[in-house]
Specification:
- With 681 residues, the protein is an all-alpha fold.
- Strands 1-2 form a two-stranded antiparallel sheet.
- The chain is 60% helix and 1% strand.
- Among the domains are: 95 residues, no CATH class; 143 residues; 43 residues.
- A hairpin with a 2-residue loop joins strand 1 and strand 2.
Length: 681
C-alpha cells in the first residue's frame, strides 16, 4: 500500500511518519526505492513542517528523490522557476539521466512565457555547460521557442518593441541551428551539404509574430528555396491545413496590416499561379473578391478555394454582412461550376454555414430595421433549388415532393433560424406581414418534411430561442404574443403534415420515415408553454394592462377589451394536446409514451380553463392499455382538477392512491372505502 494511502485511511499521519522515521529507514532508502508522487503526498500529510523538511532531507541525501518527476510536477503547476532550481540540483548531483535532461529542458521551456523564454533558454544552456550565448538546441526546443508569443504591453510602442525583440531572437535561433537559413550579404546561403533543415511548422510558427512585411517576404522566399512551399495541393487532405497554407495566409495578413495592399495582391497572384490556396477566415475579411473567380484577367491564376469550416468561422465572426453575403454567392458559383448538372444552393453550402449566416444577419442588421427582409431574401435564395408546396396540396403531389431526410433536416434548420429573425425585430407596421410570412413558410416546409421535425431542433436549447420559459416577471423576448401564435401554428402544421389532408394517410406514408416519439413529447411541452403565455396574456387583459411588446402599438378600445386574440382560442390548446396524444399512439404506439406525456396533457387542459373532462377522456383511453397510466398521474390529476372530479374512475383503478388524496375529506374517504369493499366482494 502506498504511503499516501496509509495517511488517508488512518486517523492521523503518525503511521506513515513512523514508517519513514523509524530506524529501518535504510530499508526505504534502498536503491530499489524511489520517492515519486506518492512519497511526496505522504510527506505532505505530516502536520509539522520540520518533520516534512527532515524526511525530504534524508531522501535527498540518499539520492532517492525522482528529480524528473518533481520537475514535471512543478511544470504542470506553472512553477518553472522552482523547476529550474530542481533541474540545477539534479545536474549538480548527477541524478538525472541524459534522456531525462532533454525532457526536463523541453518541459521547462514549455512552461516559460513569451517574455521570459530568452532568459530561460540561456539559463538552461548555462546549466548544461554549453558554450556561453550558444543557441544550439534540438528541433523540438526550436519549435517550442518559436511557439511563444510575448504578452501585449500597456502601450503600443512597448508591445511593438517586445514583438520585435522576440522575432529577431527567433531568427537568431533559426540561423544558428540551420545552415540553410544563414545569411551572407543579404542573400540566403544554400550550401551543398545543408545538414539540419527547419520544418514547415517552424516557419509557420515564426510568421505568427508581428514583423515588418519585408522580413515576412524574406522568410517566405527562404521557405520556398528549401522546397517547403512546394507541397502539391491535395483536395482529399483539405480537413488538415498544411503548414505552407498557413505560411501564405500569414504573409498576406502581414502585408495587409502594413498597408501593402498592392504587394499583397501581387503576392497572392504569384502563389495562385502555382497552386490553389485555401484562405484563412481573417484573410476573407480583406482579400479582393476577384480572387474567388477563375480566368478574370489572369487566366493561369487559380481561384481561392474556401473550406466549409473556414467559411463558417468567417461568417460567425464578421461584422461586414454585405461582404459575407457576396462571398457566399461567389463560393456557391465556384462550387457549382466544379460539378456537372444543376446544383442546389442548399446542398452546395453546409447547413451550419446557412444557419450561421442567418445568425449573422440577426447580429448585424437588427438595428437597421431590415433584418426580416434580408432574412427572407436569403431563405428564398437558399431553397431556390427546391419546389415547395403548401399544406393544402393534394397528398399524392406532397408525397412526390418529399425529399431525403438530410435535405429536409437542413431545410427545417434554415426555416427555424428564419423564423427567429422574422420575430426578432421590435413591433411595428410590418409585424402582421411578418407573422403571415412565418405561417406561410411553416406550411410549405412542414408539408415537404411530412410533419417530421428533427429531434435536435425540439430540444430545450432550441425551443427556448423561439418561446423561452415564462419566468416570474414579464417575458424578456420581443413579440412574445406573436411567438405564441407562431409556435401554435408550427404544431398545427406538424399535425397536418403527419395526418395528411385525408386523415391518417400521412402516418403510414411509404415515402417517409416513421415519426419519432420524442418529437411528440417535445411538442406537448411546447403546447404547455404556449398555454402559460396565453394565461399570462389573459391576466394582463383582465387587469387592463397593456402588453408592452405586443403586435401593434396602436390599440383601440375594442382590442383592449378583447381577452384573447386570434388566430386561435384557448380551447384550441387542449384540443391540440389531445390530437398530439392520439397521433403518437397511432404512429408510435402507446408503449412509446413517457410518463411525463400524460402529465403534459393534464397541464395543457388545466391551463386552458380547467378542462377536466378532456383530461379524463384521455385518461380513460389510456387506461385500456396496461402500464400507460400510473399512480403519479392520479395524484397530479387531483392536484390540478380536484379529487371530486372522476372520483369513481380513479378509485376503480388506483384505490390506494385515492385514499391518500382524500384522507382529509370525510365524504371522499367514505366513497373510497365503499369502492374498495365492492371490489373485494
Amino acid at each position: 500500500m502506498s504511503l499516501d494511502v496509509v495517511g488517508r485511511v488512518c486517523d492521523g499521519p503518525l503511521l506513515p511518519y513512523r514508517c519513514l522515521m523509524r530506524p529501518a529507514i535504510e530499508i526505504l532508502m534502498a536503491p530499489s526505492f524511489a520517492g515519486d508522487g506518492n512519497f511526496l503526498s505522504a510527506v505532505q500529510s505530516f502536520p509539522s513542517e520540520l518533520d516534512r523538511v527532515n524526511v525530504l532531507r534524508r531522501a535527498h541525501a540518499s539520492g532517492q528523490l525522482d528529480q524528473f518527476k518533481i520537475i514535471r510536477g512543478l511544470v504542470h503547476h506553472g512553477k518553472w522557476l522552482e523547476a529550474i532550481a530542481v533541474f540545477a540540483d539534479g545536474l549538480a548531483t548527477q541524478q538525472l539521466h541524459r534522456r531525462d535532461i532533454g525532457r526536463s529542458r523541453l518541459n521547462i521551456l514549455h512552461a516559460s512565457s513569451g517574455d521570459s523564454v530568452q532568459a530561460v533558454l540561456y539559463c538552461l544552456q548555462r546549466l548544461t555547460r554549453r558554450p556561453e550565448n550558444s543557441l544550439r538546441v534540438n528541433d523540438a526546443e526550436v519549435e517550442c521557442v518559436l511557439s511563444k508569443v510575448p504578452s501585449m504591453q500597456s502601450t503600443s510602442s512597448g508591445a511593438s518593441f517586445a514583438s520585435m525583440a522576440h522575432w529577431r531572437f527567433c531568427l537568431q535561433v533559426l540561423s544558428e541551428n540551420y545552415a540553410s537559413l544563414a545569411t551572407s550579404g543579404g542573400r540566403g546561403v544554400m550550401p551543398g551539404n545543408e545538414g539540419r533543415r527547419p520544418t514547415q511548422r517552424m516557419v509557420s510558427l515564426l510568421l505568427r509574430h508581428s514583423m515588418p512585411w519585408n522580413v515576412a517576404l524574406r522568410i517566405f522566399e527562404l521557405s520556398c528555396r528549401l522546397n517547403m512551399a512546394a507541397t502539391p495541393y491535395d483536395p482529399a487532405g483539405a480537413s488538415s491545413t498544411p503548414s505552407n497554407v498557413l505560411i501564405i495566409n500569414r504573409v498576406a495578413h502581414i502585408l495587409h496590416a502594413h498597408g501593402q495592399r498592392q504587394r499583397m495582391i501581387e503576392f497572392l497572384d504569384s502563389v495562385l499561379c502555382a497552386s490553389p490556396l485555401s484562405p484563412s477566415s481573417e484573410l476573407l475579411e480583406f482579400v479582393p473578391l476577384e480572387f474567388f473567380s477563375s480566368n478574370r484577367g489572369v487566366p493561369e491564376r487559380k481561384p481561392l478555394m474556401v473550406e466549409d469550416k473556414v467559411l463558417y468561422h468567417f461568417v460567425e465572426t464578421t461584422m461586414n454582412w454585405e461582404r459575407a453575403l457576396t462571398l457566399l454567392r461567389l463560393v456557391e458559383d465556384q462550387r457549382a461550376g466544379a460539378v456537372t448538372g444543376k446544383v442546389k444552393p442548399l446542398q452546395v453550402i453546409s447547413a451550419s454555414v446557412h444557419c450561421t449566416t442567418l445568425k449573422m444577419l440577426r447580429r448585424c442588421c437588427a438595428a437597421h430595421g431590415e433584418l426580416w427582409l434580408h432574412s427572407l431574401r436569403y431563405f428564398q435564395h437558399a431553397v431556390s433549388g427546391l419546389h415547395l408546396l403548401d399544406c393544402h396540396t393534394h397528398p399524392r403531389r406532397l408525397a412526390q415532393q418529399h425529399g431525403d431526410t438530410d435535405v429536409n433536416t437542413i431545410l427545417y434548420c434554415i426555416l427555424y433560424e428564419t423564423l427567429l429573425n422574422l420575430l426578432e425585430e421590435p413591433s411595428g407596421a410590418s409585424i402582421v406581414l411578418r407573422e403571415k410570412t412565418c405561417f406561410s413558410l411553416m406550411e410549405c416546409v412542414t408539408a415537404r418534411c411530412g410533419g417530421r421535425i428533427p429531434t435536435h431542433m425540439l430540444l430545450p436549447n432550441q425551443m427556448d430561442r423561439l418561446l423561452p420559459r415564462l419566468g416570474v416577471g414579464e417575458p424578456t423576448v420581443p413579440n412574445f404574443e406573436e411567438r405564441t401564435r407562431v409556435s401554435m401554428k408550427l404544431i398545427m402544421c406538424v399535425l397536418v403534415g403527419l395526418l395528411g389532408s385525408t386523415g391518417k394517410e400521412g402516418l403510414k406514408s411509404p415515402h417517409m420515415t416513421p415519426p419519432d416519439a420524442v418529437m411528440f413529447y417535445e411538442l406537448q411541452k411546447l403546447v404547455c408553454r404556449v398555454a402559460e403565455y396565453r394565461h399570462y396574456l389573459m391576466r394582463l387583459h383582465e387587469t387592463g394592462q397593456s402588453v408592452s411588446n405586443s403586435a401593434s402599438p396602436r390599440k383601440t378600445a375594442a382590442t383592449e377589451k378583447r381577452v384573447v386574440q386570434q388566430p386561435f382560442q384557448m380551447g384550441l390548446l387542449w384540443q391540440t394536446s389531445l390530437e398530439l396524444l392520439g397521433c403518437q399512439c397511432r404512429a408510435c404506439g402507446v408503449d412509446s409514451m413517457m410518463p411525463g406525456t400524460l402529465k403534459l396533457v393534464y397541464l395543457s387542459c388545466a391551463t386552458s380553463g380547467g378542462q377536466w373532462e378532456a383530461a379524463l377522456h384521455a385518461t380513460q383511453c389510456l387506461l385500456q392499455h396496461p402500464g400507460a397510466v400510473g399512480g403519479e398521474h392520479c395524484a397530479m390529476y387531483c392536484s390540478l382538477f380536484g379529487w371530486e372530479r372522476a372520483l369513481a374512475v380513479w378509485c376503480r383503478h388506483f384505490p390506494q392512491q385515492m385514499l391518500r388524496e382524500v384522507s382529509g375529506h370525510a365524504k371522499g374517504l367514505e366513497y373510497c372505502m365503499q369502492s374498495l369493499e365492492c371490489s373485494l366482494e
